[in-house]
Write a structure and sequence with these properties.
Blueprint lengths: L1 H20 L3 H5 L2 E8 L11 E3 L1 H11 L7 E9 L5 E11 L6 E13 L2 E9 L1 H17 L1
Parallel strand pairs: 1-6
Antiparallel strand pairs: 1-2, 3-4, 4-5, 5-6
Length: 146
């Protein structure tokens, strides 16, 4: 029973990440509970909230945050099974580019996810905020040289 739950949660996570990477918000956010809580201990954008609650709130954040990029090509590096079959830890990375300038963007992540009734109900993501800052610095420099 526990192994089946782990496998199901892993499949939900992979499906969600694939959809979110393609900006298929309907499919990706359908993998989350309505009251999902997402938090970023190292906020990727300085003035953003450290935590967001609610699928619609998180969706709006993703939509605005990725509007200038060509999606995020997420690739899963490793998923760790835990004693609690309702929780997983994943290492993953992404690559993208800024649409207007073509400036590349890459980042690495560590996610801790909890599931309830087959959906993600909690997602803590550790992200390198410097990678985002550096991309926007390159975007600004590219815009100045045009």
């Amino acid at each position: 029973m526990n192994q089946q739950l782990r496998e199901h949660n892993r499949a939900v996570f992979l499906h969600m990440m694939n959809a979110l990477g393609r900006k298929d918000w309907d499919t990706g956010f359908a993998c989350m509970t309505e009251d999902v809580c997402c938090d970023w201990p190292y906020r990727p954008i300085p003035d953003m909230d450290e935590a967001m609650v609610g699928r619609d709130v998180v969706r709006a954040f993703f939509d605005a945050g990725q509007a200038a990029t060509a999606g995020l090509d997420y690739r899963i590096d490793r998923i760790y099974d835990l004693v609690d079959p309702g929780t997983l830890i994943a290492e993953y990375h992404s690559d993208s580019r800024h649409l207007a300038t073509g400036v590349p963007y890459s980042n690495r992540y560590l996610g801790i996810l909890r599931f309830r009734e087959g959906k993600v109900c909690y997602w803590r993501e550790y992200i390198n905020p410097l990678a985002i800052t550096e991309m926007f610095e390159r975007v600004t420099a590219a815009a100045v040289t045009r």
